[in-house]
Specification:
This protein has 385 residues and is α/β, with parallel strands linked by helices. It contains 16 helices and twelve strands. α6 runs parallel beside α7, α14 packs parallel to α16 and α15 crosses α16.
């Protein structure tokens, strides 16, 4: 891991344990990103024209990413982030008064807001099932969520890896049940690409969005929206531009409408293959295993320090991300500021299920020394020996 650390641009005076928020881009990937930006500025019309090479270049990048995610090239379009991609689909849906969108209480706050906003406009209901804590049996989680299905359920929306709790939810059996009932399935895969293996065709969901700029370590502003071919007609363009009723249609109306939305810098999208190359060159499945081992070590040491019970056992719930409970009454904002200011540690302290949590993320650039620094800082700030 020490050797990998030199391949990233992160400041050496900061212990960076917050990869889950924005990620960090390796030097060679960032250099390719900047090379593309310089190419753009050297001849913007050549680079950006949808009648020259840009559609072919984006298609090639989408093909590489689709192969990595277990999908077809024209089932995927690039979007700036998973939130944007999921909004594209959610705002295309027509819900009747009384219709229901089913989810759970571990969802990302932005997505909760999206569904509350859209359901409020259409007099529909956003139903958030409470999961039993601590998490233990995946089957119990499946049943807790599925118990919320009614004859008015139109959408099942879940995170594959949750943001506040950092757990891998058992989405596969829920997707299968929903498909049998004719319920549209939407999966927030923001933390999936690069952290766990992904095969979208095997998963069988209708809609999925995942960030490339998190665990895949592509440049910021690169993500993928997947929509299964047989439901693409449901999706409208969030921005109506030249791709709608295109004068030069490509092989996919879905791609035309979502890709041709006006002037923007596509360099982050085109640099995604460089991130995939970086993964392959550095045997990232092996790196992920090392990262998970270091995460579990950090988890055990912090739980021993606080004397608190974990949210879940390691298997099958955790990848490279874990939320650890903090003592009741901990001022999360103050602890976050203190860790950053006094100890040089960047790590989120969140509130979930009515209590404060520390969310630890371990990526290839992290070292055992980073964990030592965190444990020492917490021991001091929480008043433990």
């Amino acid at each position: 891991m020490d050797a990998l650390r030199d391949l990233f641009l992160l400041r050496r005076d900061v212990v960076f344990l917050n990869h889950g928020s924005f990620g960090a881009c390796p030097r060679p990937v960032f250099e390719e990103y900047q090379r593309l930006q310089r190419e753009l500025e050297s001849e913007p019309v050549d680079f950006l024209s949808t009648r020259r090479t840009l559609p072919d270049r984006l298609a090639a990048a989408r093909a590489r990413l689709a192969d990595f995610l277990g999908a077809d090239r024209d089932e995927i379009v690039f979007v700036p982030n998973a939130t944007t991609g999921l909004n594209v689909v959610a705002r295309s849906l027509r819900l009747d008064p009384g219709d229901e969108v089913l989810s759970c209480d571990h969802e990302y706050g932005a997505m909760d807001r999206m569904w509350r906003f859209l359901c409020g406009k259409q007099d529909a209901r956003y139903v958030r099932r409470t999961l039993p804590l601590p998490l233990d049996d995946p089957a119990a989680v499946v049943e807790a969520i599925w118990a919320g299905v009614t004859d008015r359920t139109r959408v099942l929306f879940l995170s594959h890896i949750t943001s506040p709790s950092g757990v891998i939810l058992p989405v596969e059996p829920l997707v299968a049940r929903a498909r049998e009932r004719g319920i549209l399935t939407m999966i927030d895969g923001a933390h999936v690409p690069g952290q766990i293996d992904c095969d979208l065709h095997a998963l069988g969901c209708d809609v999925w969005a995942g960030n490339c700029h998190k665990w895949l370590m592509a440049p910021k502003g690169s993500a993928a929206l997947y929509v299964r071919r047989d439901v693409q007609d449901l999706v409208e363009p969030l921005i109506v531009s030249w791709g709608w009723e295109s004068d030069w249609p490509g092989p996919s109306r879905f791609v035309d409408e979502q890709e041709w939305t006006g002037t923007r810098d596509p360099s982050a999208f085109l640099a995604v293959p460089a991130a995939l190359d970086f993964f392959k060159e550095h045997d990232w499945p092996r790196v992920r295993m090392r990262c998970r081992g270091l995460l579990l070590e950090a988890r055990e040491r912090i739980l021993a320090l606080t004397g608190l019970d974990p949210l879940c056992p390691p298997d099958p719930w955790l990848g490279q991300l874990a939320a650890l409970p903090l003592p009741e009454g901990t001022d999360g904002d103050a602890l976050h500021r203190t860790l950053r200011r006094d100890h040089g540690i960047e790590i989120p302290v969140t509130t979930f299920a009515g209590r404060p949590w520390l969310r630890v993320a371990i990526q290839g650039y992290n070292t055992p020394g980073d964990v030592e620094a965190l444990v020492a800082a917490l021991s001091r700030e929480l008043g433990k020996p």
